[in-house]
Amino acid sequence: MMLVPNPVTRVVDRLGRSTERLMTVGLAVLFTSSPVRAAQPADRPNIVLIITDDMGYGDLGSYGATDIRTPNLDRLAREGVRFTDFYANGTTCTPTRAGLMSGRYQQRYLVESPLPAGSGAAGEMAERGLDALPYSLPRLLKNGGYATALVGKWHLGYRPNQSPKAHGFDWFFGLKSGYHDYWRHHDSRGQPDLWENDARVTVEGYTTDLITTKAIAFIEQNATRPFFIDVAYNAPHWPFQRPDTPTVAVGNARFLKPADSVTSSRADYVAMVEHMDRGVGAILATLERQGLARNTIVIFTNDNGGEWLSNNAPLFNRKWTTWEGGIRVPAIMRWPGRIPAGTVTPQVGVTMDLTASVLAAAKVSVPTEARPDGINLFPILERTAPVASRTLFWRSTQEHRVMHAVREGDMKIVVDGSHLYLYDVRKDPGERNDVARLHTDVARRLRLKLNAWEKEVNAEAASLR
Question: Total structural domains in the chain?
Answer without folding.
Answer: 1
